[in-house]
Amino acid sequence: MLFFIFLAVVITQRIIELVIAKRNERWLKKRGAIEFGKAHYRIIVFIHALFFICLLFEVIYFKKELSFFWPLLLVLFLITQAGRIWALTSLGRYWNTKIIVLPGSEVVKKGPYQFMKHPNYVIVSLELLIVPLLFDAYITALLFSMLNALILSIRIPAEEKALKDLTEYDRRFAATNRFIPKNVNKV
């Protein structure tokens, strides 16, 4: 029962995020924003939907229970949720589940973006590991961590290229590698 409540809360959160993303997409496109990565976005949606199906199947079929380490995992999950909210609110109307870039817009470099270029991808990666581990669903944790790493190897370069082509992204993150800035104090 606890599993189903937890799963319902996480799925409800994702649906709310999709509603916000759609609203932000309309706002951005009215201002001339351009969408990139449509082909791989479908794969991302498929992977995330399949994640919940596989998690549900593994927990029910293999009669998985709450992990012995659930207090620690729950704390880690709550930390990721705080990080998610921080990342999304820092981007404001520029946040989206798609790659949508408004040409000439100022790149957001506040909140967690002052410390790392892709905090939300790190958070999602952690969630895809923590959520299944909460219920000892090791197969789901391993499989979707690998699938997520694979899709992010496509997604992040596509997003960075779009930002470099249409904004001052290179200048804003000149001293930054893919995830962690080399020098946070510059620019």
Automatic annotation (TrEMBL):
List the keywords (alphabetical). Membrane, Transmembrane, Transmembrane helix
The secretion signal range is none
UniProt keyword Ribonucleoprotein present: no
Q: Which GO terms describe its molecular function?
A: protein C-terminal S-isoprenylcysteine carboxyl O-methyltransferase activity
- Transmembrane residue ranges: 40-61, 68-87, 129-154
One GO cellular-component annotation of the UniProt record comes to: membrane
Give the subcellular location: Membrane
Chief place of localization: membrane
Q: How is this protein situated with respect to the membrane?
A: Multi-pass membrane protein
Q: Supply the InterPro entries for this chain.
A: ICMT_MeTrfase (IPR007269), Metal_cation-efflux_comp (IPR052527)
- PANTHER family in UniProt: BLL3993 PROTEIN
Name the record gives this protein: Isoprenylcysteine carboxyl methyltransferase
- What is the source species? Bacillus canaveralius
